Amino acid sequence: MVGTRQRLCTGSRMRAGGAWTTLLMTLAVLVAVLATVANGAAVMSVDLGSEWMKVGVVSPGVPMEIALNKESKRKTPTTIAFRNGDRVFGEDAQTLGVRFPANSYGYLIDLLGKTIDNPMVDMYRKRFPYYDIVEDPVRRTVVFRAGDDQYTIEELIAQLLQVAKVYAEDSTGQPITECVLIVPGFFGQAERTALVAAARLANLKVLQLINDYTAVALNYGIFRRKEINETAQYFLFYDMGAYKTSAAVVSYQLAKDKATRETHPVVQVLGVGFDRTLGGLEMQVRLRDYLGQEFNKMGKTKTDVFSNPRAMAKLFKEAGRLKNVLSANTEHYAQIEGLLDEQDFRLLVSREQFETLCKDLYERVTAPLDKALAASGLALDVITQVVLFGGNTRVPKVQDILRTHIGQELAKNLNADEAACMGAVYRAADLATGFKVKKFITKDAVLFPLQVVFDREGDSGALRQVRRTLFGAMNSYPQKKVITFNKHTDDFEFTVQYAELEPVVGGAIGSVDLARVKLSEVAKKLKAGVTENVESKGIKAHFLLDDSGIFSLANVELVLEKTVTKEEDEDESTFQKIGNTISKLFSGDATTEGKPEPEAVEKEDEEAAGAKEPKEAEDSQATKDKEEEPGKDAKQEGSETSDGEAVKKTEESTEAKNATVKPKIVTLKETIPSKVDLTYVTPLDGELFEASAKRLSALEEVDNAKKRRETALNALESFVIDAQVKLDEDEYASCGTPEEIASIRKRCGEISEWLYEDGSDADAETYESKLEELRTVANEVYARHWEHQERPEALNALKQMVNGSEAFLRNARNLTKDTNPEKDVFTAVEIETLEKAIRTTIEWRDTEVAEQKKLARNAPVRLTVKDITDRMATLDREVKYLVNKLKLWRPKVKPTPPPKPEKTSEKTEGDKTEETVKEEEPVLEQTSETSAEEPTVVLEEGEIDPTETQKEKKEGADHSEL
C-alpha cells in the first residue's frame, strides 16, 4: 500500500476528467520530456569581481538570465570564511567576518598570479592588516594562513567558482561543466593562467576569458543589432568598480566574413585606459580610517581602534554602507553598537566631507578616459556616447566630473551590475555546442605588447641583443604571428617579454619575462636538409594569442626550398605525364602549363582585421639585420623574406621569364624541437595541482556530510511534528486502531526527547535510521487515510469510463454484418466480449463498494485504488482494441465491369444480309488522370472518391461511338 501511495499520490491531486490510465500515461510522457531536457547542455558565465559575483546561465529552452543565490539575490559577495571546520560563502561569510575578520577572505581577484613581493600584495596588506599572508615556498605566490590551515589564492578562487557552479546548476536544473569567465582587461599572462588553473580546480572548462569592457560592449551591441550598419559607430565604455577603473573605445560595424561570405556585426576594441587602484574600495578604506580616527578622538576608551581587528572589520562594513547612502543623500549618520570595549559609536558624515577625503582620487577619474581615446587615435567629438557601467559610477561626484570633462550627457541605459555577465553568457552560448545564436564577432586589443629578444653575433664577432615586436599595442586578437630567424645555424634560445611597459604598470604586472624558449637539433636539421638544390629559408617560430589573451608558442620549424630542375622534371614517366595532361584538361589548367608552382609558404591568419601593425615593421633595422618583422600583413607574412632575398627573387623571376622552362620550387618543412620554460610565475600544475585538488575535495566532502546531516535532521524533526499534529485530527486518527495510534504517539515522543537531549550531535545515518523506523510505524495509518481520501475520485473516474464504454458499445452494434452488411467492422464475438467486460466491471464495482462500506476506517482496506485502476485498465484495453480496428477498417471497392459486346450488320454479295456479332476494341482515352488499368483506391472513412462518380457516369451513359 505504501508503494501504491507513492506511485499515485501525484496523480491523485489532479482532477481527472478522463480515465486514470490516461493521466498516468500523460505523467510518464511528461517525465520523459523533462528527462530529455535535463540531459541537455547548459553553460554559464561568471563575473568574479573584487566585491560581488554575478552568475549568468543559458540552457535549452531558457533564455539568458542571472542565476539566483540561496538568498534569492542576483549577486553574491565574493567572500569565503572558515570557522571550526565549517565553510561559508557570501553574506554568511561577511557576517562571520565581522566577528572573526582573520578567517574571512574577500577582494581576492587581484591577488591572482602575484608573487609575494608584488606591490599589489603590499597594498592589500595595508588595507587589511589582520590577514596572515605568507609565501608559497615553491611558487612564491600568496598563501593565506589561518591557524594550521593554509589556502593558496587559486584554491580560494576555485571555491568561489564552485559556489557559482552550484547556483547555476540550481537555476537550470542541469549539470554545468563549461563557462566563460570575465577578467579585467589589464590582467597579464600570470593572472590569466592562474584563473584558468583555479577553474580547473573547480572542475570547470573555460571556453574563454573575456575582458569586462568587451563583454559589456557585446551586451550593448546585441540589443542594438538593427542600428549597426557598414559605417563604423564609436562608443566609449567607462567602468569604475570596487578595485579599479577602466575605459574602452569600441567600434560597431557590419563586416563580411571572407570564408563564409556572410555579413555579421563586429565589435572591435580600439583603445583602452585603466587605473588599477582607483575604485570604490579605496574610497571605502579612506572612509573607514576617517571613522576610526574620529572614534579615537572621542576618547571613549584608551585602546586604539586600529589595533583591534574586530573593530576594524566593523568600521569597514559601516564605511561601505555609509558610502552607498551618501551617493543619494547629502549627509548621514555612521553608527556602530559596541564598536570597542562595549562603547557605541555615532557620527554625522556629510557628502562634502566624504568628497574631501577622496579629493586626490577624483582628480584621477578622467585619466583612463583620456588614455583610451589616445590609444584609439580618435577625438572625443566622433564618440557617439559615453556609456557608464560598474557600481561606483553611481557616485554623483564621479558623474559630475565625467559630464564636465566630455561636455555631454552620460548614457546610463545599461544595467551597471549585470551588463558584463549577460554579454559573457551570450558569448558562452555562442562557443558551446548545442546552442545557435546570431553571430556577433568580438575583436579585443592587446594592452601589453609582447616582444621576442635573442642574441646574435654581429659583424665584429660580439654578441648583441636583438628585439622584435611580436604583438604590438592595440593589435587585435585572437591572431597568429610568425618570426623568422635567418642567421642562426646552431642551437640557440630566445625570450618572450613584455615591451614598452610604464614603470607603474610594470611593477603591478610582475615579471617582465614571460617565457624562455630553447631550440635544439638546429645544426643537425640544417646539415641534413641543405643540399645542392635545397636552400634554407630560416627557422620560423609560430606564436598564438588566443581569444582568452593567453600567449603560446604553437611550433618551430625549419623551412627549406628545393629547386626542381628540367632534367629532374623529365624523369617523370610517360604515364605520369599523360595523367598530368588529362588532369589539366579536365581541371581547366591547360593554359597554365609550364608556369612554376607558387611558393608553398604557410600563411598565418590574422583574424584581427584592421589591426594596427607594430612600428618595428617599418624600421630600417629589419632590412639591415635581415630579420623578418612579424607585424606585417597577411601577404607579407606569406613571403616572409628580407630585402636581400626580395632582390634575389626579383632577379630570379626576371631570368625565369626569359627562360623557356621555369624551375619549380617545392617548400619543405622540418620540425625543430623546442622547450618552453615559463618565467613569470610557476604555474599551478602537476603535483602542486593534485595536492590542491585533494584539499578542495576534502572540504567538499565535509560540506556534503554537513548538508546530509542537516537534511536528515530536518526531515526527522518535520516528520515527528507532522505526525503528532495529524494524530490529533479525527480524519487521521480514525484510520488507525487504538494500539497503532498509541504506538505512533509513543515513538514520536521518544524520538522528540532524544533529539533535544542525546541526539543533537548524532550523525546523518542515525537520523535517517530513526526516520525510517518511524515511517514504518506510521505509514499503515497514512496509507489507509490516503485510500479513503482518493477512492471517491478513482470510483468517479471508473464511472466515466464505464459510461464512455457503454456509449461506444451502442454505436458498435450498428457496425456488424447482421445490422449493416456494408460496414461489417466488428464481429458478434467482439461485441459480446466488450459487453461482458462492461457488465463484469459494473458488477464488481457495486459488490466491492458495498463490502467496503461495511468495514471501519481503521480496518484493512478491501477496495484499493490500485484495484480500481486495474479494472479500468482491463476495460480500456477492450475498448481500445475495437477503436483501433475501426480506424483500420476500409470499405471494399467493387471491381469495374468489362465492356459489353455490340451487334453489327454487314451486306454481302447477292444482296444477302448477315448479322454478325463483332467485339470492338474499347476506345481508350488516356489522360493525365486515368490509365488503362484502374488502380485500387483506399479511402479514409467519410472521404469521397471522385473516380467512383466518373465510373458511374460512364457505365450509365449511352455510347454512340461505333
TrEMBL record:
InterPro entries, alphabetized: ATPase_NBD, Heat_shock_70_CS, HSP70_C_sf, HSP70_peptide-bd_sf, Hsp_70_fam
Keywords from the UniProt entry: ATP-binding, Chaperone, Endoplasmic reticulum, Nucleotide-binding, Signal
A Gene Ontology cellular-component term: endoplasmic reticulum lumen
Basic and acidic residues: compositionally biased ranges: 592-601, 609-638, 645-655, 900-921, 948-962
Subcellular location: Endoplasmic reticulum lumen
Major localisation: endoplasmic reticulum
Domain of life: Eukaryota
Record region (Disordered): 586-659, 891-962
GO biological process, one term: endoplasmic reticulum unfolded protein response
GO molecular function list: ATP binding; ATP-dependent protein folding chaperone
SUPFAM superfamilies: Actin-like ATPase domain, Heat shock protein 70kD (HSP70), C-terminal subdomain
CDD domains, alphabetized: ASKHA_NBD_HSP70_HYOU1
PANTHER family membership: HSC70CB, ISOFORM G-RELATED, HYPOXIA UP-REGULATED PROTEIN 1
Family, as annotated: Belongs to the heat shock protein 70 family.
Protein name: Hypoxia up-regulated protein 1
Organism this protein belongs to: Anopheles dirus
Upper lineage: Eukaryota, Metazoa, Ecdysozoa, Arthropoda, Hexapoda
